[in-house]
Structure of Threonine dehydrogenase:
Amino acid sequence: MRAVTWQGKRKVSVETVPDPGLQADTDAIIEVTSTAICGSDLHLYEVLGPFMDPGDIIGHEPMGRVVEAGSASGLAVGDRVVVPFTIACGRCWMCDRKLYSQCETTQVTGQGTGARLFGYSRLYGSVPGGQAEYLRVPHADFGAIRVGEDLPDHRYLFLSDILPTAWQGVRYAGVGEGDTLAVFGLGPVGQMAARIGVHLGARVFGIDPVPERRAMARRHGVEVHDLDSDTNDAIRDATQGRGPDGVVDAVGMEAHGSPVGKVAHTAVGLLPDAAARPLMQTAGIDRLGALHASIDLVRRGGTVSLSGVYGGQASPLPMLTLFDKQIQVRMGQANVKAWIDDLLPLVEDPADPLGVDDLITHRLPLESAPEAYEMFQKKTDGCVKVVLDPKESR
């Protein structure tokens, strides 16, 4: 089969690799019909390279049809399914508490990390990912989400990651009807988080330096701001001088305006992988511009919710400010299956309350992945969300 493979920093290629096969009776094999590029894939493309191996199949936002079903998978050939990016058993102590991203059955204990993820480095199990023609789905008996036949792929595809990630981010921020919410970063997760905030009745401020992303969010009732030195003051002025009740940081470790972190990332990237891996795990520093801005902006007693991925173990935090402002901080990989009952009716609603029809800016053949990654990272051609089609020819 053809698959998108990691080959080095800022280098992916589409290669012919062996087809996957069933390895357990709870597995399923799907033929992928749509697979998206996620903002967190760019961390593999750039910062987390020391944890990747050439030839790793990447991608963690797939959906498709079952072509082989293990005897205990509960699936049948032909079922249309979405596959969450987290791999969970659904039965362990953590799963019983709906902490699916901490599943004790699939935890990568050798790395000290949580549940295995599709296509996401040694840190999360080096599981072959979903930017491919076919995908083996471990624990498909629990993880695979059956969906209907009448709606196009894009209505369901984002249940794999960005919709539950955004929903969890907003829920963790603790906002609802009549509250105020700010979202740093209007990439795919930030777009969805902002729209979810509006759907839940909050007044939402979206912050991003890219005009096309601001324009997209504005179409969905979000009050948008460029990222500049006056932004936080302007939002405070709009919230009686206090700041918003909650802030979602949908940017993560590669934020703009973080020169120290950028230098650290660059220095680590110059090291051989064997030397860079332990340095990242013990002394890595993230680019914290968005997080520091979130802490500055949120009102006293408010909540900062992190949806953007962070990976540094030695990232400095303004503890005096956090303590003095009595700020709550919540974070973590999305517990995807915990939110599906809330989200499935919304993506199937003909009114499209979350604007899922207005998110994909580029749909390209799988073979165009190298160009798509470069475009997505550089934010050229108005790129907000890319979906790859394994069946479409270049």
Residues 80 and 149 are 7 Å apart (CA to CA).
